[in-house]
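New to this. Please check this fold:
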Amino acid sequence: MQFWKDLFKKKTLCGICFIFLILILFVGIFADVLAPSKMVNGILESSLLDRMKPPGTAGHILGTDSSGTDLLSYMIYGARTSVILCVCCTILSTLISLVLGILSAVLAGTFDLIVQRIVDAFGCIPQMLLLLLLMAMMGNGIPQMVIALAVPAGIGGSRMVRSAAFSVKDSGYCKNSDLLGGGFIWKSVKHVLPNITPLVIISAAGQLGGVVMMEASMNFLGYGVAPGTPSWGYLITNQGRDHMFDAPWLCLVPGIAITLLTFCSCMFGDGVRDILDPRLKGGVGSYNSKKLKKVLAKLSAKEEKSGEAA
């Protein structure tokens, strides 16, 4: 409960961004109810008589595309694609990071050495090149995108989890657990995982915006969702780029949506970090650093006056 109070009271912008993310999630879940045009057999309703209508046209608030599909409906169904990708990629990459990072720290030794060399090998390959290779092997589609985005991100993020798990593993209560006969599973679940949960939540919140950006980039390069699947990045690639001058709304509308979603995801991640990380509560890294400076200035002024009076 205190977390939500701090989120909306101390981190107002973060709270607004959280509401926007929840709104996108709501739109994605209830797309079939909210969209003016319905999807039949995986294809959105369209009319060639209404093609390339500008925003503000009667019945088409955001206009239409080259096939006569209502752009508002397309954006609503595209939100569902973004929600599926963000949630699935974040969950899968977080699980991979937790398993590899915690096991590397708890087991250490040869297992840690082998895992870290694999992580180093993945880190040597440029991320975009690795994504292109994976998508070229698996083909286009949402499940393929989830695997291609989540697996490298999970392997790379395991090093941060490993570092945090090592600091917990070397603490006194973990060593006492060893003396009492606790195995590595008990120590991982009972001691290590609860103490690194805030760090994991912060990392997961920061990944949301990156998933949307990478999905748009992969669609731009032709390795994204399956053709015909509503996606903001696919709309920019498939039609927005070709009609940038004669129908700029096909590029601007999804571009603004991607920008807002990425911005809100990053701001939400930063706010969660400031709230959960005890080192940033009220410190210079928080949003209240200006207030802290004013308080310190008043205290120093009072000390000077008391010194002069003495």
In short: The mean pLDDT is 80. Residues 60 and 70 are 6 Å apart (CA to CA).
